[in-house]
TrEMBL record:
<dbReference type="GO" id="GO:0004479">
    <property type="term" value="F:methionyl-tRNA formyltransferase activity"/>
</dbReference>
<dbReference type="InterPro" id="IPR036477">
    <property type="entry name" value="Formyl_transf_N_sf"/>
</dbReference>
<dbReference type="Pfam" id="PF00551">
    <property type="entry name" value="Formyl_trans_N"/>
</dbReference>
<dbReference type="GO" id="GO:0005829">
    <property type="term" value="C:cytosol"/>
</dbReference>
<dbReference type="InterPro" id="IPR002376">
    <property type="entry name" value="Formyl_transf_N"/>
</dbReference>
<dbReference type="Pfam" id="PF02911">
    <property type="entry name" value="Formyl_trans_C"/>
</dbReference>
<dbReference type="InterPro" id="IPR005793">
    <property type="entry name" value="Formyl_trans_C"/>
</dbReference>
<feature type="domain" description="Formyl transferase C-terminal">
    <location>
        <begin position="190"/>
        <end position="276"/>
    </location>
</feature>
<protein>
    <submittedName>
        <fullName>Methionyl-tRNA formyltransferase</fullName>
    </submittedName>
</protein>
<feature type="domain" description="Formyl transferase N-terminal">
    <location>
        <begin position="85"/>
        <end position="140"/>
    </location>
</feature>
<dbReference type="InterPro" id="IPR011034">
    <property type="entry name" value="Formyl_transferase-like_C_sf"/>
</dbReference>
Amino acid sequence: MLTIGLYLLGQKGLNVLENLYIKYSNEILFVVVGKDENVQSDYSKEIIEFCNNNRLKYYKRDEINLPFTTIQFAIGWKWLIPDSQNLIVLHDSLLPKYRGYNPLVTALLNGDEEVGVTAIKANKEYDRGNIVGQIKLKINYPIKIKYVIDEISDLYTELVLTITSKYIESDIKEVIQNESEASYSIWRDEDDFIIDWNNESTFIHRFINSVGYPYKGAKTKFENRFIRILDSEIMTDLNIVNRTPGKIFSIEDGLPIIICGQGLLKIISAVDEDSKQSILFKKLRMKFI
């Protein structure tokens, strides 16, 4: 008999739960809810609310006495799961590429033309389990990470429903990962969200889009405080003979145009890191660091 356990975090976790419930409401025995303080919204409240509204049993991440299930799925999960028996882990990359942390951010920063989601059987080696499903998504730049997550969330649901159906039919096929193609994406902290104005404007623009909502956003120091850059626009470069990255070149309708290592970038939207209030740019002789 099919029974399902879920370890869920984020928008992808909520999306899978909502859609899996439609077809397998009676088979879902438990949901473990993860929380992540490093994003603006981890969807934990929404997942708990859905469980309460539909009388699904949910647990906190540190609870260990969970019911046995014939198959388990980890969606957006960042932590070790002691009971990895019958566990399928879904990962935000086309494994074996980008094993590790924040692979979707890394793929977008690198300008990859394809991203995707891979389902693997859990084992003791990090993100090295046999592949049981994979779906690709083509990317056209510029693109914001929120839009990509929306698309990826639907792929998660599609993959979980497909694997569940194949499990019922005893038709899950495993593919060993090719170690020669493996690459890794390491963890990020607050320092990794700081803009380096020595980079090209095209990269900085992509950086802002890649670490935006639901992440906290790219940041820079301005007037002795950090601000978050939420949106930007690439401008035509000019021949600036004494180019100094980070300096404001001009202000158009209250929107500053910043000199980059190569190219110019207009700041469309920025907020104070602490107050979240919009920043008004009035002084020309200022520099972002």
